Amino acid sequence: MRILYHFWLQPFSRKVRMVLGEKDLPFELKIEKIWERRTEFLAMNPAGDLPVLIEEDGTTLSNSQVICEYLEEVCPKVNLIGENPVQRAETRRLVNWFDQKFNAEVTENLVNEKLMKSILNLGSPHGPTVRAGRANIHYHLDYIGFLTERRSWLAGGAFSLADISAAAHLSAVDYIGDVPWEQHIGAKNWYDKVKERSSFAKLLDERVPGFEPVENYKKTG
Predict the structure, then answer these.
(1) Domain range holding 163?
(2) Helix ranges restricted to H, 75-126
(3) Same structural domain, 101 and 20
(4) Which residue, of 24, 40, 74, is where some domain finishes?
(5) Residue 79 domain-assigned (yes or no)
(6) Could you point out which of 90, 128, 165, 166 has its C-alpha 20 to 30 Å from the C-alpha of 173?
(7) Are 134 and 126 in contact (CB under 8 A)?
């Protein structure tokens, strides 16, 4: 069975887990604490980051987008990129938006400061950084609302990797209670639809040891 090395709440790992779930591909999860710099793990991925996917034949893949594009090629029955070049370009544009822009402006400022610092015993969250993340998230939620006013899903008429990337990041922020859903109903309605997908259910069941999610983390509506 293929193996996915991941870490709790890590958005890029969650992204790959959702893709595997959407494609109904079985896999085993292994927690990797990348700060330990294990020799065996660095031999698989010298970059030392997550996620890493090991196929049954020993093929090793790293970087969430590389893994997702690979899975699109080897399991094309469930298309998560798009049926034509324009659709694929739009999906990839939005994936980059959430994996780069949202991650830098929101995920790192909130999840890294409020959760990862605690896990690693690195002290208290840095107040200005947290405030920046909380301010930045409104812009992104507004953008999700703008897109879903015009489309069924973020990149168009079909659920895609764009929705997966956005949901992977937002679910991590939502775990710690920093998504102001009540101020962004369009984004909330879209996220509730994602929550209904079976590929997302196991992510919502996941718990970080010693850190329970906020009360409404799993609820919809």
Answers:
(1) 85-205
(2) 85-96, 117-119
(3) no
(4) 74
(5) no
(6) 90
(7) no
